[in-house]
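[job 4471] stage=fold_predict status=RUNNING
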Amino acid sequence: MDEVKVVVAHSERATLRVGDVFLKVDADQARIDVEVEAMALAPVPTPKVLWRKPSVLAIAAVPGTVLGRLGEPSTASPAAWAAAGAAIRKLHDAPLPPWPGRRLDELVAELDGECEWLVANGVLPADLVTRNRQVAEAALRPWTPVFTHGDLQIAHVFVDGDEITGIIDWSEASQGDALYDLATLTLGHEEHLGDVVAGYGTDVDLDVIRAWWSLRSLLGVRWLAEHGFDPTAPGCEVDVLRSRM
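[job 4471] inference complete, writing structure tokens
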């Protein structure tokens, strides 16, 4: 009998693996609904939906291995990173999903609130927060919305050799900024940014991508700490913030 493996678990959601089946349990049914619809619309490889019931989604495992993990060197080839960039471009060129994404004013308010909290509670030095808030400003501009994955961290992209075999975890998909997806994929792996951009196949504003690195990291520190993750681990969010100094 296959054993049950806890892939991730916190107060909002949990993912279990039994053999080649993943069970995603989510306190927010809307996230499951978005995930299923986004996978159906996305023109890139996604997991097969086996069944769904209220608060639970069963999907098949995708072949291959993850592109990498935050805080660890990636063993994937430059061609695999370029293939990821090409897949993202295909997604961004697809018709928009019918639901909107986060508004710019909401994002600004959330960022300012998090920066204030990080300093007021002594979580991060004030100069570190201030510098990264300045860097993040470049991302806070109007963008032309595209179909974004919304949480395109490298552990959500699977490869076999130089080919993309699947992209998982679509619950944050929406209309959004194309450069946010590119930044999320390359967060903590700046050495592969050139490969991703080459595969993406068009000019991108690298300063905006770097701004999203700062912004995503500033927004993530408290959430990660409160949900049992360590943003201070080597190569992770706090190191990303320090690299902007």
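[job 4471] summary: The chain has a mean pLDDT of 95.
[job 4471] exit 0
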